[in-house]
Predict the 3D structure of the following.
Amino acid sequence: MDDLKRTDFHIIKKQQSLGANASETSFTILFYATPVWFTPKSFDFDKYGYRNCKLTEDKQLLSTSEAVIFHHTSFSALPEKPNDQVWIFATLESPYLTYKRFKTHTLERKFSWTMTYRKDSEGFSLYIILKKRLHIPVKNYTSIYMNKTKKHCLDREQLSNSIKSRSLCERTIEIY
């Protein structure tokens, strides 16, 4: 638990404007390393009132993009960083889980901004949106539980690929 109280998990924040490479009319944001679940085509800046921004995955635009986003699990090596370009370290995981990945010599001082679920990030990225249901489904959870034959619950997302965790995941469990 002492690791959670550490203060050095944060990336050193340096105020930097996107204006260094920016044209007067538009900004190009390159999502260099996207997570498997993200599709830039579905992101619409107009919806949020930013008509002069374009999000792309075209790596040919690396040298001319004003900002470049790298998702923490989606890159193994980094390209050369153009001067004055904003590089963004993006993650939806906690600092505890990304600290080892980020705190390496090759990534040292490469990133200008962070994009996380935390509101104190330079780029805030919602993890989830809760919406009020119009109709609440009626379920008898006591009955559902009593009819279960296996009393296990497993969140496999954070397990490593070790033999031990793989054998645990291969056990038969009920999904509800």
